[in-house]
């Protein structure tokens, strides 16, 4: 159960970063089935997981709205330090809520609209390092809708 939560957090963080990048315009990622490999070190424990998720840009926009609400609640300010058509790096400082006193540094590199690599380092109450590699596989299967996730062990979750 904790691993599911960690993976969900990693995906939300990735979506926040994807959605918050400003000019120049970053690639709009393809709708469809994506495979994600996440490596995370949280409170000294290592987690490694692979999953598939059905994503859509409409769902990503909805997640952006939720992420903006969380950032406002936690009084997070983000500075995009570097941006180019295929990558960006940013630093976010949060002053309230569960993220109070934290600093998150994120770097994302896009390979067109079908792949990206993200590295995220968060310091504060604890240190977390997250690395996500996500690749487009094709159309979502008929039995999956945007937001659905299939873990490596075959367990399914609805992400909406």
Outline the structure in words.
The chain is of the alpha+beta class. 22% of the residues lie in helices and 46% in strands. It contains 2 helices and 9 strands. A 9-stranded antiparallel beta sheet has the order 3-4-5-6-7-1-2-8-9, covered by helices on one side. A hairpin with a 4-residue loop joins β5 and β6. α1 crosses α2. The longest helix is centred in the first third of the chain and has 19 residues. The radius of gyration is 15 Å and the shape is globular. The chain starts with a helix and ends with a strand. The N terminus is likely disordered.
Structure keywords:
single chain; alpha+beta; 9 strands; disordered N terminus
Secondary structure blueprint with pairings:
Elements (H helix, E strand, L loop, with lengths): L1 H19 L11 E11 L2 E11 L1 H17 L2 E9 L2 E8 L8 E8 L4 E9 L4 E11 L9 E4 L4 E3 L2
Helix pairs in contact: 1-2
The count of strands amounts to: 9
User: Would you identify the regions where 5 or more consecutive residues have pLDDT less than 50?
Assistant: 1-9, 15-24
Rg, nearest Å: 15 Å
Considering DSSP H and I runs of 4 or more, what fraction of the residues is helical? 10-25%
Class based on secondary structure composition and strand pairing: alpha+beta
Q: What is the global morphology?
A: globular
The description of the largest β-sheet is:
9 strands, antiparallel
State the order of secondary-structure elements, H for helix, E for strand.
HEEHEEEEEEE
**N-C termini distance:** 17 Å
Strand order of the largest sheet: 3-4-5-6-7-1-2-8-9
Continuous helix count: 2
- Report mean pLDDT, rounded to a whole number: 82
- Multimerization state: single chain
Strand content: over 45%
């Amino acid at each position: 159960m904790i691993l599911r939560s960690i993976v969900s957090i990693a995906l939300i963080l990735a979506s926040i970063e994807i959605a918050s990048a400003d000019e120049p315009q970053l690639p709009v990622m393809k709708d469809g089935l994506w495979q994600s490999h996440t490596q995370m070190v949280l409170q000294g424990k290592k987690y490694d997981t692979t999953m598939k998720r059905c994503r859509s840009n409409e769902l990503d926009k909805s997640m952006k709205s939720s992420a903006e609400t969380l950032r406002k609640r936690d009084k997070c300010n983000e500075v995009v330090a570097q941006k180019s058509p295929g990558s960006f790096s940013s630093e976010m400082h949060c002053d309230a809520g569960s993220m109070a006193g934290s600093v998150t540094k994120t770097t994302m590199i896009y390979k067109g609209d079908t792949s990206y690599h993200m590295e995220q380092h968060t310091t504060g109450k604890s240190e977390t390092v997250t690395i996500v590699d996500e690749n487009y596989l094709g159309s979502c299967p008929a039995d999956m809708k945007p937001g659905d996730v299939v873990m490596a062990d075959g367990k399914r979750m609805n992400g909406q």
